[in-house]
């Protein structure tokens, strides 16, 4: 997902979820010149419902 860590472990509020994903994507862009297009979740329970909503939001 391009984030620095898994949301449910470090960013329980949706604002924090957006912020840490933004920071992670910025890091990848600056360090490697790439933008994430796909993501994966190593948590056996998968993404939270909020994460799915945020990824599908048209902003």
Secondary structure class reads: mainly alpha
The coarse silhouette is globular
Largest beta-sheet details: none
Task: Please compute the radius of gyration using only Cα atoms.
Answer: 11 Å
Helix count? 3
Arithmetic mean of pLDDT: 73
SSE series: HHH
Strand content: under 5%
Helix percentage:
40-55%
Task: Please mark out the parts with pLDDT under 50 across 5 or more consecutive residues, or reply none.
Answer: none
How many domain modules? 1
**Distance N to C terminus:** 18 Å
- Count every beta strand, where a strand is a DSSP E run of 2 or more residues: 0
Word description of this protein:
The chain has one domain. Helices cover 53% and strands 0% of the residues. The two termini are 18 Å apart. It has helices spanning 7-10, 14-32, 49-56. It contains 3 helices and no strands. The chain is mainly alpha-helical.
